[in-house]
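Ligand: adenosine-5'-diphosphate. Inputs:
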Amino acid sequence: IHVSRLLAMGEMASTLAHEINQPLSAIAHLLTGSRRLIERGREEDKPKITDALDKAAAQALRAGDVIHRMRAFVGRGDNEPTLENLPKVIEEASALALIGAKEHRVDVRYQMDPRAGAVFCDRVQIQQVLLNLIRNGIEAMYQAPKRELVISTSIDSAGDALVSVADTGTGMTDEVRDQLFQPFMTTKAEGMGVGLSISRSIIESHGGRIWAEPNKDCGTIFKFTLPLANEETPHE
Ligand code: ADP
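Predicted complex:
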């Protein structure tokens, strides 16, 4: 199930890249053409330029629509939310995310708060978020002198479960931090830049929040909240 989920993500990512690429090259093409016509400076070209710009705008909307559909798809999820044990959800996700982590000599620690036990969530989706955060954390530490990943849970002041994934990696500039959750924002040569944007859709559809803070000495802490399941929460 884990592997097929990863494959599905990979497939989705390449379909997305392809679908986005088409309107983007059309836009580039239309704009280059318009520029040429403008430089030529002929009055009779004006309607052509207007037409090309209208078409470029329509293509931009089309690209936006692809992202929108992708979000709706991810937001829908495979399963209905169920009552889940948060430490177990985290354990399973990190077992998968940490495959290969040993060879990068990453030291992983867990600090689970027993009060953050039952949550009402779509397990597959929340594990997808954890997978993204843990993988990003490990990647950020590839070249770091200290490689320590701490995954912890607690209860925040609003009484929600708070999950943190802290790394001692490169950290990030303010500019990157401001755009972290935007689709296609990546600083990686091979990156898609969709992991965090999808993660945010998932967390928000669960009624939670997700954000990043600098870690104490170096690196980054990603945090997200999930409402705790209580006696009144309906479940199957
Ligand atoms: P991708 O990993 O494909 O680039 P993401 O949406 O997961 O896409 O991340 C977007 C960007 O956020 C990354 O390219 C990286 O610059 C930054 N980032 C994410 N997690 C971390 C982290 N733990 N430490 C430093 N930078 C990070």
